[in-house]
């Protein structure tokens, strides 16, 4: 049986391939696949992006090798950055509630 953290890692990998397998290279996200992943899995995050070209900007940020595709290594940077931001928010909330 997978531990909680192993389960979370497994879920991240499965989510990536669920969207990357739709068109083109099965192991990378095209811009359309990235957009669908953001909409399907990070809807709240996308909703608070004020820039209407945010998918374009996110794609550009993530595509560090500039091949027009987002591979898993590039994608995991987004998950890491968002997880760090969520943690900071959570810690701040607990501090404000006097629980930390
Ligand atoms: Ca790339």
From TrEMBL:
Domain EF-hand: from-to ranges: 50-85
GO molecular function: calcium ion binding; calcium-dependent protein binding; transition metal ion binding
Gene3D superfamilies associated with the record: EF-hand
InterPro entries, per the entry: EF-hand-dom_pair, EF_Hand_1_Ca_BS, EF_hand_dom, S-100_dom, S100/CaBP7/8-like_CS, S100_Ca-bd_sub
Alphabetized PROSITE patterns for the sequence: EF_HAND_1, EF_HAND_2, S100_CABP
Domain of life per record: Eukaryota
The keyword Metal-binding belongs to this UniProt entry's keyword annotation: yes
UniProt keywords, alphabetically: Calcium, Metal-binding, Repeat
Presence of the UniProt keyword Ribonucleoprotein in the record: no
SUPFAM superfamilies: EF-hand (SSF47473)
Protein name listed in UniProt: Protein S100
Organism, as annotated: Scyliorhinus torazame
């Amino acid at each position: 049986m997978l531990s909680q953290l192993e389960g979370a890692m497994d879920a991240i990998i499965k989510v990536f391939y669920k969207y990357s397998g739709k068109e083109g290279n099965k192991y990378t996200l095209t811009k359309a696949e990235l957009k669908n992943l953001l909409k399907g899995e990070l809807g709240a995050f996308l909703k608070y992006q004020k820039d209407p070209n945010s998918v374009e900007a996110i794609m550009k940020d993530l595509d560090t090798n500039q091949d027009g595709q987002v591979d898993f290594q590039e994608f995991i940077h987004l998950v890491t950055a968002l997880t760090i931001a969520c943690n900071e928010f959570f810690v701040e909330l607990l501090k404000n509630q006097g629980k930390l």
